[in-house]
Inverse folding.
């Protein structure tokens, strides 16, 4: 069964950190770009970050640039999103998704999606 599984979400205070993991099973992530998306209540799903398969190039939304470094460990078949300096407006369900090779943040281009993990930033 081909699937992506996110983990690492939770409740954190403003200014805190979380690390999200996206683990693949049933296929290797080596040939896929992995994107992170988030969806807050009443809002559309938005692209947060992406890391390509080919050269490891990355993309960040302006809202998270400098705070959410993305990385991949192909040996562990896992991609990470380190979330630092969290703000209340980062509260959302975070999803990882896979598409071939190159980063693009159009959701329809992604083949596989995880089930999502809740991130809540609140004091």
């Amino acid at each position: 069964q081909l699937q992506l599984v996110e983990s690492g979400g939770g409740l954190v205070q403003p200014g805190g950190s979380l690390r999200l993991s996206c683990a693949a099973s049933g296929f290797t992530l080596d040939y896929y770009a992995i994107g992170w998306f988030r969806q807050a209540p009443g809002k559309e799903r938005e692209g947060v970050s992406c890391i390509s398969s080919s050269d490891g190039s990355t993309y960040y939304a302006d809202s998270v640039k400098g705070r959410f470094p993305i990385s991949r460990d192909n040996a562990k078949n896992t991609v990470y999103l380190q979330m630092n300096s969290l703000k209340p407006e980062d509260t959302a369900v975070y999803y990882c998704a896979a598409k071939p090779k190159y980063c693009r943040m159009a959701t329809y281009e992604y083949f596989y999606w995880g089930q999502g993990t809740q991130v809540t930033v609140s004091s």
Summary: Residues 30 and 75 are 9 Å apart (CA to CA).
